[in-house]
Amino acid sequence: MIHLGFYEFAPRRVACRRDLCVTCAAPRLAEGRRFWRVLHLWFIPLAPAGWITRWYCRTCGEETEKGRPSRRGIFFLGAGGGLLIAAIGAALLRHPDEPHGWIMLLSGLALAGVLVFAATRPSATAYTRARAAVEPLDPTVCPLCNQPVLPGTKPTCHSCRVRVDRL
């Protein structure tokens, strides 16, 4: 059994924004924590994987996007793959000695149909609409320390050194 994963070093609070928390099922203040990720094998660090920022709810402490529905583009990309499998199966039907053509054709069409259905179901689109309805933060006052924010293209709080994102 291979034990492969990522270590996350040096967590640091770098930003805040109002976001839709899936765990709380409501708009909440979220803080962005930045980590240095390192790939490890059997607990031995191998290669740096770069910086990553994750958003955590200030109310429940969970990641704001933990357990959220998959993006619709992913479903449509998979449906395109299903149609490609179906096209290969249809091409194999021209050769009578190849028995796998029908299997590929039918399974490709079934995969495409299921993924298009999943992409258009209400729960996948309801998350997108609910997140778009979240009211953005006021970029003039830091919500973490109530100090004035330095104006600019990326408003930053001078006292707690976090970026105030509008979403």
Give an overview in words.
- This protein has 167 residues and is α+β, with helices and mostly antiparallel strands.
- The protein has two domains: 4-68 and 128-158, no CATH class; 72-120.
- Helices cover 31% and strands 32% of the residues.
- The protein has helices spanning 72-92, 101-120, 122-132; strands at 4-21, 26-41, 44-57, 149-150, 156-157, 163-164.
- Strand 2 and strand 3 (44-57) form a beta hairpin.
- The longest helix is centred in the middle third of the chain and has 21 residues, at 72-92.
Any key phrases for this structure?
two-stranded antiparallel sheet; 2 domains; alpha+beta; 31% helix; 167 residues; four-stranded mixed sheet
List the helices and strands and how they pair.
Elements: E1 4-21, E2 26-41, E3 44-57, H1 72-92, H2 101-120, H3 122-132, E4 149-150, E5 156-157, E6 163-164
Parallel strand pairs: 1-6
Antiparallel strand pairs: 1-2, 2-3, 4-5
